[in-house]
């Protein structure tokens, strides 16, 4: 077996040497290859390739340019393995055939990583501490004929199997040295200049988690527990929940059952670091020969390097906190068509009261420009808007045109809100809601309100004097004169009129509901894994959409109807059409539950918020993820787009409202004031005020007009992907309104800018 193992490794090593002998790789190219591999393996992007000509990347030295560093480390690791197992004859054969001219040092006490971080001498080397050997080993390149005559691995034992064996070996570090490695890096980072310390400190958390998981995975339970107790207190406070979950994973079997930690182990944690800070880290690990930490960085981290000044602690903290680190800058460079679609040209007839209003003093000056702008919007195409036919949208029916006319007339009468003119707030309190209110939605014209409950029911109320009626039976409909002007009234059965209706069908708590724009349909999503489409004409279930395998936390109709989106515990958001029983698109990428969904006003994009503390923006046309936004420190539960489609607000369990610029993919504001989870966000109809509702029983109003006007997105900021957030929450807070004991779970601005809020009284 050992002889076979040697032949396999020999074949792998000799094949690598062949490329060098044949003149395919020279010194300069070799350096470039090493650096490119470094960037691809998580230690930086292509920016890392522009280090100084004389510098060397981690794992290689200027004295051994004839072969990739990882191959030399592999060879030395195999030699040390054989020597440790008293296979001296095999050691001599492999050393002689590989051309190694130095005896391998295997003195006692030298284990993987050796003199890593405790300040010990670099003279004793073993295992992970192979870099110091590279400075003393000269490799004699075999002649070309010898390379061509390299032994061929036996059939059935090809190269990948060898790589699997070696990768498994590389993960077997001495558990007693893990605290030394981590502590040494900690001391180094604490000793650097303040400007670099904040950036380099980002490395602590992912390293801590992966080192702990390696110890658990390799069945070093006692050492893992000691490692956790010693260093868990050093981590940032916003990782507290992750650390709580991690502390319960003390055996290898626990890792198999935890999807979140499995994702953490298989996906790369992204760190955004300036070039100067990265060079400091690289130089330290190169000098200390800390191979165990370097292996983790290569396998599990992606270091996104940027040119420019290092970021401050506040800038880093603002963007940190997600399960997978920050987003790569490349992830937010796709062009997003955030503009609004061209409105159809519909003539708006003026009512008598409209004409009178125009003759009144004071009011027409505000209202006339609104009407003009409404007309101009239908004539001019927004340069940032997608093509009108980019995605197929349903054609407008006559009823839709009438509704748009009503909408435009209401919009002409709406109150212009601002810091000196705050909206009135009307709060709908659900009393005695012992069924457990879990979701609320209000129609665009504010005529209907619906609630989803934990007892599997959906209830719909009319909030106008007009009661809810069902369509007459088929037999009664056949007797109606279909040519009459009031046919729409005649088809409704007055005997069924009531202020509310109850919809039965789900077999689990209802977590999300959404009215269609035309008020003919209602969507509901449930723990039973289905999304149901209800008719508001017959108050019956029309379709049950089955695609999710687990609870569906949220669903929402497109602003144009027809399409809707859902997201759930399976970490996938799905795009549906009402006339298709299978999803049109599946948006996969989140590392935890998709907790909330929201359509962009132009219906070409879908935003999803997740328990992995990230927000993703998806292109409906092709299903691509075009934005990844990080910064929240807890699961995200609410999203809202500004009416012009350019900005977005998000709220989470961390009690913070974050403002985002969609075009640049940047966080541009942070609104602090809530003390509990934010479940409801809504922009006013003109976008100048943002309302936020929280589990802390308050509704807060924010001056977003000022927040957006104060932002300066220069070229440098957009290029580096970070911005300095102003501490102006108190300046932007226009008002805070407390309920008696009612958490706010939904907000809605009427067409005239009256704010409606809803929640269940919690005695």
Automatic annotation (TrEMBL):
GO molecular function annotations of the record: RNA polymerase II general transcription initiation factor activity
Composition bias, Basic and acidic residues: 371-382
A Pfam family that the UniProt record links to this protein: WD40
All copies of domain TFIID subunit TAF5 NTD2, residue ranges: 173-301
Gene Ontology, cellular component aspect: transcription factor TFIID complex
Any one GO biological process: transcription initiation at RNA polymerase II promoter
Keywords recorded for this protein, A-Z: Nucleus, Repeat, Signal, Transcription, Transcription regulation, WD repeat
Start and stop residues of the WD repeats: 430-471, 503-538, 545-586, 587-628, 629-662, 671-703
Region (Disordered): 36-70, 103-128, 348-402
Domain of life: Eukaryota
Sequence ranges of Acidic residues compositional bias: 348-359
Chief localization: nucleus
Location in or out of the cell: Nucleus
Signal peptide: 1-19
InterPro entries hit by this protein: LisH, TFIID_NTD2, TFIID_NTD2_sf, WD40/YVTN_repeat-like_dom_sf, WD40_PAC1, WD40_repeat_CS, WD40_repeat_dom_sf, WD40_rpt
Bias (Low complexity) ranges: 39-62
Family to which this protein belongs: Belongs to the WD repeat TAF5 family.
Protein name: Transcription initiation factor TFIID subunit 5
């Amino acid at each position: 077996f050992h002889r076979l193992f040697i032949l396999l490794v020999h074949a792998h090593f000799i094949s690598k040497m062949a490329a060098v002998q044949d003149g395919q790789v020279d010194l300069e190219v070799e350096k470039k290859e090493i650096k490119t591999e470094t960037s691809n393996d998580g230690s930086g992007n292509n920016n890392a390739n522009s280090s100084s000509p004389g510098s060397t990347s981690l794992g290689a030295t200027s004295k051994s340019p004839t072969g990739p560093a990882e191959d030399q480390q592999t060879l030395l690791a195999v030699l040390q393995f054989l020597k440790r197992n008293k296979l001296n004859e095999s050691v001599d054969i492999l050393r002689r055939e590989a051309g190694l001219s130095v005896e391998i040092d295997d003195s006692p006490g030298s284990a993987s990583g050796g003199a890593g971080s405790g300040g010990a001498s670099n003279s004793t080397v073993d295992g992970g501490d192979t870099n110091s050997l590279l400075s003393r080993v000269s490799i004699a390149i075999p002649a070309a004929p010898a390379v061509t005559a390299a032994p061929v691995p036996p059939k059935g034992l090809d190269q990948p199997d060898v790589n699997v064996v070696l990768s498994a070996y590389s993960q077997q570090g001495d558990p007693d040295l893990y605290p030394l490695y981590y502590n040494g890096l900690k001391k180094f980072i604490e000793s650097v200049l303040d400007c670099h310390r904040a950036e380099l400190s980002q490395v602590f958390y992912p390293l801590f988690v992966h080192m702990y998981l390696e110890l658990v995975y390799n069945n070093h339970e006692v050492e893992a527990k000691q490692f956790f107790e010693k260093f868990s207190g050093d981590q940032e406070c916003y990782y507290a929940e992750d650390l709580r979950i991690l502390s319960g994973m003390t055996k290898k079997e626990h890792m198999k059952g935890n999807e979140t930690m499995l994702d953490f182990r298989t996906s790369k944690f992204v760190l955004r670091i300036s070039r100067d800070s990265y060079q400091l880290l690289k130089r330290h690990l190169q000098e200390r020969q800390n191979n165990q930490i370097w292996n983790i960085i290569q396998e599990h981290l992606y270091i996104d390097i940027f040119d420019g000044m290092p970021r401050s602690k506040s800038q880093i903290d603002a963007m940190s906190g997600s399960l997978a680190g920050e987003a790569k800058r490349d992830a937010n460079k796709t062009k997003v068509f955030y503009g609004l679609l061209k409105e159809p040209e519909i003539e708006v007839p003026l009512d008598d009261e409209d004409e009178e209003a125009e003759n009144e003093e004071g009011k027409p000056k505000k209202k006339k420009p609104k009407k003009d702008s409404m007309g101009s919007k239908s004539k001019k195409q927004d340069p940032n808007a997608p093509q009108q036919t980019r995605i197929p949208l349903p054609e407008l029916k006559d009823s839709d045109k009438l509704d748009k006319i009503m909408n435009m007339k209401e919009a002409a009468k709406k109150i212009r809100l601002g810091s000196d003119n705050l909206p009135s707030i009307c709060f709908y309190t659900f009393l005695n809601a012992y069924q457990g209110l879990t979701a609320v939605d209000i129609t665009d014209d504010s005529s209907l309100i619906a609630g989803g409950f934990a007892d599997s029911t959906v209830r719909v109320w009319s909030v106008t004097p007009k009661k809810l009626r069902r369509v007459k039976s088929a037999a009664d409909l056949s007797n109606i004169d279909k040519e009459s002007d009031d046919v729409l009234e005649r088809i409704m059965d007055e005997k069924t009129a009531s202020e509310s209706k109850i919809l039965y069908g789900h077999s689990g708590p209802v977590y999300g509901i959404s009215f269609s724009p035309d008020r003919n349909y209602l969507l509901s999503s449930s723990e039973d894994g289905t999304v149901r489409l209800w008719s508001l004409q017959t108050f019956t279930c029309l379709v049950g959409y089955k695609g999710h395998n687990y609870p569906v936390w949220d669903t929402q109709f497109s602003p144009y109807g027809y399409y809707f989106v859902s997201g759930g515990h399976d970490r996938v958001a799905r795009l549906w059409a009402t006339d298709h029983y299978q999803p049109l698109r599946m948006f996969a990428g989140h590392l935890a539950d998709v907790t909330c969904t929201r359509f962009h006003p132009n219906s070409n994009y879908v935003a999803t918020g997740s328990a992995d503390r990230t927000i993703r923006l998806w292109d409906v046309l092709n299903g691509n993820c075009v934005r990844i936004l990080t910064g929240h420190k807890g699961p995200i539960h609410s999203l809202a787009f500004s009416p012009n489609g350019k900005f977005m607000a998000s709220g989470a369990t961390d009690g913070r409202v974050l403002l985002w610029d969609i075009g640049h993919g940047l966080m541009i504001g942070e609104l602090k004031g809530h003390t509990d989870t934010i479940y409801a966000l809504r922009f006013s109809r003109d976008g100048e005020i943002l309302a936020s509702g929280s589990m802390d029983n308050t509704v807060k109003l924010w001056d977003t007009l000022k927040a957006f006007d104060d932002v300066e997105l220069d070229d440098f900021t957009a290029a580096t992907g970070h911005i300095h957030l102003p501490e102006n929450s108190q300046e932007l807070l226009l008002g805070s309104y407390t309920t008696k004991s009612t958490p706010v779970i939904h907000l809605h601005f009427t067409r005239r800018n009256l704010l409606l809020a809803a929640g269940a009284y919690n005695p």
